[in-house]
Write a structure and sequence with these properties.
414 residues, alpha+beta, 3 domains, elongated, binds zinc ion
Length: 414
């Protein structure tokens, strides 16, 4: 590779396609023309000196190309354009290098010469094969690690009310068309519970007991692999699941029973109450988050918020707490807009305001009107299953406080 003008010889001049404007010059003159071009002389002076008939801006394009290398593919000569006059580093413009024989561009970004296109194709085919191999070995690792044979089957008779209810919510919404597996939870069209946090609890309740197991037919990238390419966890909402339940009769009968669970309500009252309380808390938290976000607050739900709403739920229904939250948020935004409080302070007032309103409502025996659900937070599948499906008391879960006495009175024959 030629670095400076001194290294340039006649051998280096590529005189094929030499422009007409330079055709009157000898090879020696061309060499000194290039030398002058890289000197302090102006282009105008050079044009005069060599009697070249062109305008200065077009002059550089007329200069001959320089042979300065050999092609790594075919051994042919590689030509370069000269660096422009003002460029002080190097003599040749490396990006312009091109083999005169095979058109290979050694410094080009993506060379389209035959050899490079062929090499690129081979690289792509190799990469695809490699990807397939990795996928295959990951699939094998999943099959080994999560093989259904590694899980002890759970007897259907061992399922408690909580498990039956949780399973039913999932089977109702996510069972595949052929009934063979649970489709990824994230594809459920309806909300299984009022919040992802509760839905996660519900799924974990079943997976931790191996009632649901991740299906080895799930997409490979729904599993998380460690450095040794062993799948050590999976994405709760993205894997498919299998039912790991032993049953005495046909599988379709099992599905039928899971869709319409028979719950011994009186024996399971404690379990039902626990689910209702959880459900109510998350309905309240979802509404709280929704209203807060709606006015531009970004609340963090911590111990105090949860404890406050749990306490309110001892006395009030979810609908009534919607009322309390709505007013607390409205008061807070008013306080913020009046300029008396910073946004953060006003936001932090909301939970305390809910607590105070609740205490006042009890002390002063308010008749606190319940609000209705809003369309942005429709009734979840868990709520519908319990109150409409099992207790046959549609919506009562929303309009009564989740307490044992309210649950018992719902069960009394009218
Ligand atoms: Zn070549
Ligand atoms: Zn090439």
């Amino acid at each position: 590779m030629i670095r400076s003008i001194k290294e340039l010889t006649l051998e280096n001049l590529c005189l094929d396609n030499l422009s007409n404007e330079l055709s009157h010059l000898t090879e020696i003159e061309l060499l000194s023309l290039i030398s002058d071009y890289k000197s302090d002389k102006t282009v105008k002076e050079i044009l005069q000196l060599y009697s070249i008939n062109t305008i200065p801006s077009k002059f550089k394009k007329l200069l001959p190309l320089i042979y300065a290398d050999f092609c790594s593919h075919c051994g042919g000569k590689v030509v370069f354009e000269l660096q422009s006059k003002t460029y002080s580093y190097g003599l040749l413009e490396e990006q312009t290098a091109q083999c005169v024989q095979c058109s290979h561009k050694p410094n080009g970004y993506s060379c389209q010469c035959d050899a490079c296109v062929r090499a690129e194709n081979e690289k792509r085919i190799l990469a695809e094969a490699q990807k397939k191999r990795v996928l295959l070995s990951k699939r094998e690792a999943i099959t080994k690690e999560y093989n259904p044979d590694r899980y002890k089957k759970i007897e259907e008779s061992e399922l408690g009310a909580t498990e039956k209810i949780f399973l039913s919510v999932i089977v109702r919404n996510c069972l595949s068309e052929d009934g063979k597996y649970i489709a990824p939870i994230k594809n459920s069209l309806l909300p299984l519970t009022p919040s992802n946090e509760l839905t996660t609890k519900l799924i974990r309740h079943l997976t931790s007991r191996s009632i649901l197991i991740p299906s080895i037919d799930s997409e490979v990238d729904t599993f998380v692999f460690d450095e040794d390419q062993i799948p050590n966890s999976y994405y709760t909402y993205e894997v498919k699941y299998r039912l790991n339940i032993d049953h005495d009769d046909k599988y379709s009968f099992l599905i039928e029973r899971l869709l319409h669970p028979e719950i011994e309500i009186c024996e399971s009252i404690e379990e039902l109450l626990k689910i209702w309380q959880d459900l109510a808390l998350y309905e309240v938290l979802s509404y709280f988050t929704y209203q807060m976000n709606d006015v531009g607050y970004s609340p963090v739900i911590g111990e105090i918020t949860t404890a406050t709403f749990n306490k309110l739920l001892e006395v009030f229904s979810v609908g009534q707490i919607y009322n309390i939250i709505f007013r607390a948020v409205a008061n807070s935004t008013r306080a913020y807009q009046s300029g008396d409080y910073t946004k953060k302070h006003a936001m932090n007032m909301v939970v305390a305001s809910c607590r105070n309103q609740g205490e006042k409502a009890v002390a002063e025996e308010w008749d606190l009107k319940p609000y209705n659900r809003i369309k942005q937070l429709p009734e979840s599948e868990l709520s519908r299953l319990i109150f409409t499906g099992i207790l046959k008391k549609s919506n009562q879960g929303f309009y009564s406080a989740p307490t044992l006495s309210n649950l018992e009175s719902m069960l009394e024959v009218e």
